[in-house]
Amino acid sequence: MQGIDEILDKIADEHPYKTPGDYDSYSQYNEGWQDAVDRVRGVLKLFFENGEYDGWIPVEFLLPVAEKYYKCITITDKQGSVHWNVCYGTPEVTDKEPCFYSWDEDHDYFFKYDAIAWRLPAKPYKPAAKTISPDWRANMLCKFDRRE
After folding, report:
1. Which of 65, 79, 113, 126 has an alpha carbon within 20 to 30 A of 97's alpha carbon?
2. SS3 57
3. Buried b / exposed e along 89-101 (16+ C-beta atoms within 10 A)
4. Is 102's pLDDT higher than 80?
5. 98 falls in which pLDDT band (50, 70, 90)?
6. CA pair distance 51, 1, nearest whole angstrom
7. CA-to-CA distance for 14 and 9, rounded, in angstroms?
8. Is 20 exposed, middle or buried (0-12, 13-18, 19+ CB in 10 A)?
9. What is the C-alpha to C-alpha distance for residues 34 and 40, in angstroms, rounded to an integer?
10. DSSP class of residue 131?
């Protein structure tokens, strides 16, 4: 939540409200901007602190950006199945609204999912670099010989 607070602070600083000496900041627009940022901050705080967030984002809460290309999205559908490598957008010209879909190469068909939650793929695991430990024999000899 700390990283999100920093992002929201930067967004709030774009249009500060009632800055002393800056009479342009006393506008209704700036007040509305600050109210909107505070509202988003409150909703996100409840969302993260209630333990509801475990990486999955409910579709009622937020949908991916349709115009943005995602390499792969993982979704959960109403039957409880998990599907990965799913796209979000309008797969066919006849579609009026974006949806979660994947391409079935065997049948040349877009399969559309009725998703209840989605998540972006996790970052791959990278093991920590191994530190070079000093030779224990040399350390023991230093203790007895008083070498350094």
Report:
1. 79
2. strand
3. bebeeeeeebbbb
4. yes
5. confident
6. 12
7. 9
8. exposed
9. 10
10. P
